[in-house]
Amino acid sequence: MKTTSQNKIVLNYLQSGASLTAAQSSNYFGIYRLSARIFDLKRQGHPIKSELKFDGSCHWSVYTLETGKP
Question: Are 34 and 40 in contact (CB under 8 A)?
Answer without folding.
Answer: no
